[in-house]
Amino acid sequence: MKAGKQTWIFDNRPTILATAVVGGPREARGPLAEDFDLLHDDLLFGEKSFEKAERKLLEEACELAIRKADLKQEDIEFMLAGDLSNQIISSTFTSRGLAIPYLGLFGACSTSMEALALGALIVDTKFGNNVLCGTASHYAAVEKQYRYPTEYGSQKPDTAQWTVTGAGAAVLGQAGQGPQVVSATIGKVIDMGLKDPFNMGAAMAPAAVDTISAHCQDLDITPDHYDLIATGDLGRYGHALTLELFPKYHIDMPREKYVDCGMMIYYEHQPMLFAGASGTACSATVTYGHILNRMRKGELKRVLIVATGALLSPMSYQQKESIPCIAHAVAIEYSE
């Protein structure tokens, strides 16, 4: 069922049967390390390139999620995935190995909730019984996509963010025990004219607020409806700007309920952290690991995950284009 202009309500409430999150060495030293299923101690994971290492992350997360759901690969009817590498090669090559009917997605760092929203739509409408949703990012692979290769040694400003090396995957099903996807708000592309790829948090903040506003209006609710509202990867500067924008959108947001995944996955004292975390794996790993674990423990009953994405490319940056941004919101509820 559709509510308002941008929101889907899932009458059958697809269940998140299982999730899995995989991370790298920096994530292993962060405050959420215990919420990862698997952590690696180097950036190559035994592979010959960082791009192949990113693919391995996603393969591991998908295989773990399927196994934790007590299913086999042939039980999964559709796979929805995306990443930040050229032509989403990590997702495509992972799908090649899994041999599951595949829909490749690109929403930059909003891809995790884009996949979950579309996967829930497939399950809710009964066009599929079991759907796999996943995404991955790798610091060393993504830096060369959106900024400069790490080997170049470019100096970064305080507004820069560190790309999460990790992957998150979720298996959605028609029935079973677990958190349920109850609604999703599909965001609009918002472009405020910012052009700095080292300040993506500020560029994405207006898109996050616009989607939260649309979600509340479409469902006629306030932020108090949720125990927690988490944006994807705005970092410290984007988070601060979001708090400034809420009153302008007439959103009464309790500060204690609003968090940003980009500020949660690392300790502030970790070296070269800058403004926090970013990457498609940022919201995926924090949500599918830490936040859903809190829900399973009974600490949270209703959460809204607002994954944010900066839709730029090296080509658009070189041609002096500004940075279009988007945010997709998914509401998840859990009651035993």
Identify the notable features of this structure and list them briefly.
about 325 residues; alpha/beta; six-stranded mixed β-sheet
In percent, how much strand structure appears in the residues?
15-25%
Distance between the termini: 25 Å
What is the overall silhouette? globular
- Listing every helix as H and every strand as E from the N terminus to the C terminus, the arrangement reads EEEHEHEHEHEHEEEHEHEEHEHE
Structural classification: alpha/beta
Radius of gyration: 18 Å
Adjacency order of strands in the biggest sheet: 1-2-10-15-14-11-12
- List low-confidence stretches: none
Helix amount: 25-40%
Number of strands: 15
Please provide a written account of the structure.
The chain has 336 residues and is α/β, with parallel strands linked by helices. 33% of the residues lie in helices and 23% in strands. The strands form three sheets. A seven-stranded mixed beta sheet has the order 1-2-10-15-14-11-12, with helices on both faces. A six-stranded mixed beta sheet has the order 4-3-9-7-5-6, with helices on both faces. It has a two-stranded parallel ribbon with strand order 8-13. Helix 3 (89-98) links the parallel strand 5 (78-83) and strand 6. Helix 2 packs across helix 3 (89-98) and helix 6 crosses helix 7. The longest helix is centred in the middle third of the chain and has 20 residues, at 200-219.
